[in-house]
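Input (structure):
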C-alpha cells in the first residue's frame, strides 16, 4: 500500500469509528502518518470514539517524513472540544520487521496526544527500534525480541484488555466478541 499522507494497511483516516479484529500483512509506505492498520486515528464528538481493537500487523511500515506506527501513526483525542470521546489501541500486535520515519515512530503507535488508552498490546522489536510508542505513553504494552518470547500470560493480558473494553467502553460502539489464543505463530483470534 503506497500513498502520501494518512496511509494505512486497512484505513487511511480513521475518524470516530472502531476497527475490530483485522490483520494487515501488506507493506505500507508514504510521506507521513503511515500505519500498519490505520494511517491516522482520532476521536469525534458525542461519544464517537476511535478504537483499534484486537488487530494485528505483519507488514513493514515506512514514512519518509514523520509519524509511523505498526498499528497507527498517530492516536489523537481532542480533550477540549470532544470531552466525551476517546481514542485507543487495545489488545493489538505488530510483527513488522521494519518500521521507519524521520520522527515520531513506534512499534505500535508513532505519537499519542491527550490519551493513555494504549493497553494490552505488544510488538516485536525491529532493528534500532524498541519503543512501543514513539512519543507518548502506554499501559501494559510490551516489546519482545521475537514472537517466540510471547507467553500464555501475555496472551491472557490481551484478553483482559478486551474484557475491560467490553465492560467499560463498548456501550457506545462495537462489542468485541473475540479472544486471543496462543498458537505456534502469532496469537490467533477465536470467537
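Output (sequence):
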Amino acid at each position: 500500500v503506497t500513498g502520501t499522507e494518512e496511509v494505512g494497511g486497512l484505513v487511511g483516516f480513521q475518524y470516530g469509528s472502531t476497527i475490530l479484529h483485522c490483520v494487515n500483512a501488506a507493506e505500507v509506505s508514504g510521506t507521513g502518518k503511515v500505519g500498519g492498520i490505520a494511517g491516522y486515528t482520532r476521536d469525534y464528538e458525542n461519544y464517537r470514539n476511535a478504537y483499534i481493537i484486537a488487530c494485528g500487523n505483519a507488514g513493514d511500515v515506512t514514512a519518509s517524513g514523520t509519524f509511523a506506527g505498526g498499528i497507527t501513526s498517530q492516536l489523537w483525542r481532542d480533550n477540549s472540544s470532544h470531552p466525551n470521546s476517546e481514542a485507543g489501541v487495545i489488545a493489538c500486535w505488530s510483527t513488522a520487521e521494519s518500521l521507519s520515519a524521520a520522527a515520531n515512530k513506534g512499534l505500535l503507535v508513532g505519537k499519542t496526544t491527550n490519551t493513555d488508552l494504549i493497553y494490552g498490546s505488544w510488538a516485536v522489536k525491529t532493528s534500532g527500534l524498541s519503543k512501543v510508542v514513539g512519543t507518548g505513553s502506554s499501559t501494559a504494552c510490551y516489546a519482545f525480541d521475537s514472537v517466540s518470547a510471547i507467553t500464555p500470560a501475555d496472551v491472557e493480558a490481551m484478553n483482559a484488555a478486551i474484557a475491560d473494553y467490553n465492560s467499560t467502553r463498548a456501550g457506545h460502539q462495537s462489542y468485541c466478541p473475540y479472544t486471543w489464543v496462543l498458537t505456534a505463530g502469532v496469537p490467533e483470534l477465536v470467537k
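Notes: The first strand starts at residue 5 and ends at 8. The first helix runs from residue 152 to 168.
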